[in-house]
Amino acid sequence: MSTLKIAPSILAADYANFASELARIEETDAEYVHIDIMDGQFVPNISFGADVVASMRKHSKLVFDCHLMVVDPERYVEAFAQAGADIMTIHTESTRHIHGALQKIKAAGMKAGVVINPGTPITVLEPLLDLVDQVLIMTVNPGFGGQAFIPECLEKVATLAKWRDEKGLAFDIEVDGGVDNKTIRACYEAGANVFVAGSYLFKASDLVSQVQTLRTALHD
Description:
- It comes from Streptococcus dysgalactiae subsp. dysgalactiae.
- The chain is an alpha/beta fold and 220 residues long.
- It has one domain (5-219): Aldolase class I (TIM Barrel, Alpha-Beta Barrel).
- 33% of the residues lie in helices and 20% in strands.
- It is built from 8 helices and 8 strands, in the order E-H-E-H-E-H-E-H-E-E-H-E-H-E-H-H.
- The chain has helices at 18-27, 50-57, 77-83, 98-107, 154-167, 184-190, 199-202, 207-219; strands at residues 5-8, 32-38, 63-69, 87-91, 111-116, 134-138, 172-176, 194-197.
- Helix 2 (50-57) runs parallel beside helix 3 (77-83) and helix 5 (154-167) runs parallel beside helix 6.
- It is globular, with a radius of gyration of 16 Å.
- 44% of the residues are buried.
């Protein structure tokens, strides 16, 4: 089984205090910082650009897991590589050139990830699996934090895990949306090993303890 990783989502943090919020994450045993990039076109919301990621990079040594919810993400590969992104995950629905975009990400020195929305058939992923380091399954519709978990998406996670084993591949399976101490175990049992959590973590004053509740739930 792949290493289990927790990825606090900075989208749920206090935007006026990114440096201190990153310091709070550094105090936990989380492996990633999940950064949602939204352009107001692919999804209705607008968040951060590469300049903000570059500023955050000065305050954290954790893995920056950048999820781009933007139209034609291949336009931004170099900018996010230079900003310090470690993983760049893009939507199959956002570009007509998904293979080329993934290859461009890897050529820029980042790990490449691919993601699908809850309503997208998982079959679109199968031709891409030998190109990627990570597959993200959205367990809410993307664009806003704090949404309710969609349990039907776990069938996609289980299918992905089956394909990974059958093909002898080693990509991570990440879940994002509504992940908390009540839903994380089902995600793990379906085959996920990277868990993005936003609202659940940042609503707590003690982030260290809140991350530990996820670890505990994984093993209960």
